[in-house]
Specification:
Number of helices: 18
Order of helices and strands: HHHHHHHHHHHHHHHHHH
Structural class: mainly alpha
Shape: globular
Strand content: under 5%
CATH class of the largest domain: Mainly Alpha
Distance between the termini: 32 Å
Helix content: over 70%
CATH topology of the largest domain: Growth Hormone, Chain: A
């Protein structure tokens, strides 16, 4: 047999160049998530909801990502991964259009929330299918080769959703002076864009021969396998410590992320910074995401050179101490837009660097025979860690004000430090010389 040539590897084992579909697939994976988690909070603020209502309702939208391991076996059993990808992207487009249609209604809250729920469920299912398709459509060498590309385009989608689309809504607000029209138009534009992405994937996603419906197993066997996976997850060494780490390492960020955008857009008279919608989109969706991405890249390089254990504490301090920028901003309520950008970049860079430890530990704990299933359970705890604190963040902020709220966030950094101190990590994990380097 002739060895693969570089050209043949670049085209993939099934005849499609991975560059024609990996960037768009992971862009499509990220965009609904950022729509549900970020764009929705800004939209509801501009439509007049209170911080408590926004934080409570939007935090519930994390639930599909928290419980997606419950239905992930059905994605394997019924139809192909390609079919699931196209079906879920179609549902996401419908859900986005449904939000756009519902915004001008007199009672917009429940219809828009229902469509956001549909979007969240479809997006979580799309995650399952897309990650499975990635492994089916590429050989192991290509999976490693393109992992950075998929992460990069996931980040680009985060910038587009959290930055550009919010800036579009803000620009329309400025020119039309009609908030509902501006946000409805923005969501229609987003729906049209997603329809184009779905149509592109219909023609350009490859059709791997191994991507087919799996043999149907009896329901009892399926339930037994799931329960065994669940039990084995909690029988691992340091299981309780691992779960506590997954739930509390990001506690400060779980509170902060629900309120940060709202703090920036609220008028100075109400304790906020008084930024416009466009300015918030630029600060958080562009400058912030660039800081987050850069921090994550540097964190990954550092951990790959010296291992997770060596860099754990620098990452712990990196994800906690920069939260002080919000204490500063809420105390002085600075109107210096350049300073706001610099401080948010610092905070997000620290978060990106510190978040590396979290993701690497999830990989570390998932190692073993059932790595894929255990990692899915880890990501479920990850979603819960953001959902539960976020539900009370709005009420807490309204009760104590922005400055005291950010002081409480700093106090919660103690939880991050405590759960990190409980960890026991192999010093060799993550190094280049380690087998299965993350």
């Amino acid at each position: 047999m002739k060895p693969d040539t570089p050209h043949r590897r670049a085209a993939g084992p099934h005849g499609h160049n991975p560059w024609t579909w990996i960037p768009t697939l992971y862009f499509a994976e990220a965009l609904p998530y950022v729509t549900v988690m970020t764009i929705s909070t800004m939209m509801y603020e501009r439509l007049g909801l209170s911080n408590a209502e926004i934080a409570f309702y939007t935090s519930w939208l994390y639930l599909p990502w928290a419980i997606k391991p419950l239905w992930s076996p059905f994605v394997d059993l019924f139809r192909s991964k390609r079919w699931w990808i196209l079906a879920m992207e179609s549902l996401v487009a419908v859900a986005i259009a449904g939000v756009a249609f519902s915004i001008p209604a007199a009672h917009f809250l429940w219809p828009t929330l229902a469509f956001f729920w549909l979007m969240a469920f479809s997006s979580a299912t799309h995650d399952i299918a897309a990650d499975g398709f990635y492994m089916l459509a590429l050989d192991p060498h290509e999976q490693a080769l393109y992992v950075g590309i998929r992460s990069t385009f996931y980040r680009i989608a985060t910038i587009a959703g959290g930055g550009l689309f919010i800036m579009l809504a803000g620009t329309l607000e400025t020119f039309t002076r009609r908030i509902t029209f501006s946000w409805s138009t923005t969501f229609y534009a987003l729906a049209a864009f997603f329809v184009c992405v779905t149509a592109y994937h219909f023609f350009f996603l490859p059709r791997p021969g191994c991507d087919h419906t799996s043999p149907i197993r009896p329901a009892g066997r399926l339930l037994k396998d799931f329960l065994l996976t669940f039990v084995s997850f909690f029988r691992k060494p340091q299981a309780l410590t691992a779960v506590l780490f997954m739930l509390f390492y990001r506690l400060p960020e779980a509170l902060l992320i629900r309120i940060a955008n709202l703090f920036m857009i609220k008028p100075v008279s109400e304790g906020g910074l008084g930024l416009s919608t466009q300015e918030v989109g630029f600060v958080q969706g562009t400058v912030g995401v660039l800081g987050l991405t850069l921090g994550g890249i540097i964190g990954g390089i550092a951990a790959s050179r010296d291992g997770l254990k060596k860099w754990l504490w620098p990452m712990v301090w990196s994800i906690t101490i920069p939260d002080l920028v919000y204490v500063y901003l809420s105390y002085f309520q600075s109107q210096d837009f350049l300073l706001v950008n610099i401080l948010v970049f610092i905070e997000q860079f620290g978060y990106g660097f510190g978040f590396t430890a979290y993701m690497l530990y999830l990989i570390y704990y998932s190692q073993g025979e059932q790595q894929t299933s255990h990692y899915a359970l880890c990501t479920a705890f990850m979603a819960l860690s953001m959902m539960l604190p976020g539900m009370v963040a709005g009420e807490l902020q309204e009760a104590v004000g922005y400055f005291n709220f950010f002081l409480i966030v700093m106090g919660c950094c103690a939880a991050t430090v405590i759960v990190a101190a409980l960890l026991k990590i192999d010093p060799e994990f993550g190094k280049k010389t380690t087998h299965g380097n993350a």
